[in-house]
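Lab channel / #folding
Pinned by the channel admin:
"Please post every new chain as: sequence first, then the structure tokens as a reply. Keep commentary short and put observations after the output so the thread stays searchable."

First post following the new format, from NK:
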Amino acid sequence: MTTPDRRRTGNPVPQWGSQGEPHPAHDAVPVPEPAPVTPVPAADDHDAVLAERDRLRQTVADVEHTRTRATWFGVVIGAIILVLLLVFIVQNLESQRIELIFWEVNLPLGVSLLIAAIAGALIVAIIGGLRMLQLRRALKRAAG
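Reply from TO:
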């Protein structure tokens, strides 16, 4: 097997295996089959070219919006929020006395605000979960 030498036209350059010597990479790892190439329609067939372009665009659009992409985006945003939260807590370490009905606690300001935010998120999650349960029951009754 020879390939043309780019420096001198017409002079082939021998490749591994052309003289019978083994190619080190081919002996160790099998080479995967190349993916089949979709033939591109002739330029004069304008409608076929447009249809192929639209098909490729739709394929890309299908890949762009996946659950994995959304999960990755959520992980990155969550990491950024955690870093900002850590900076906030470290910068607000002054202890504050907090009283609630008959409880009294001394906590750093950042930690107490974090606890309040977590409590608020849990309340919202419980209310949202109850609403989803209510809607699921209504859909089951309507379907059955």
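NK: The radius of gyration is 32 Å.
TO: also worth noting, The mean pLDDT is 78.
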